[in-house]
Amino acid sequence: MAGKRDKSPASSPSPFSVLKGLAVSPPPAGKKVVPPPAPRRDVDDTPADFASAMADLGVKPITPGSTAPPVPAADPVPGLLAPPPLPPPTEEELFLSALNGITAVFRDELPAEVEPQASPRRMKLVRQGKLCPEATLDLHGLTRDEARLRTRHFLDNSVHHGFKTVLLITGRGLRSPEGPVLRDELERYLSHDAAAWVAEWGRAPGNLGGEGALVVFLKGRKGGGE
When comparing pLDDT for 166 and 54, which is higher? Predict the structure, then answer.
């Protein structure tokens, strides 16, 4: 007798049979699980959507006629000191600042020195002793202004008395760091300011003082006064 045929249908394999025995490992300890970001909300360009989006961000609209609240001043940084005020300018700085507004003009040539005006013939007579000074004025130890004033009175008085030749002793300025200051000053005075009394003048010969004295030849009385 033939065996009975198994009439039960053949069982098909399950699709999850391959997952049998597969275990899912838990997340490592201490590591946070970050949820996926929420889908971005698109904001339409309509005013209502824009206002709603600004309200979500905490922005308050400004009503017409109102002003924005003032921005509070920043708090001072601890340990940071304000710069000290600038000191007032010194006298030297003020002087240099004033010099910047001055236009300087430089010239190569120096002013010509005053040359003696006495004629060689008269000076020869003085050297020979044939023409001698009739009065002498010693200006040692005087300032420039004092020497000019003394010389003016001396010349005026000499012309008044009819003198023709006088002698001015100025010194050579050997002890002065500026040289013969009085002699140079008196030479300028005789050349430019004493024309009312002086006809000629020249530096004295050695026997009358040399470079430290001036021989002056005077005009007549009608030239008196300045």
Answer: 166
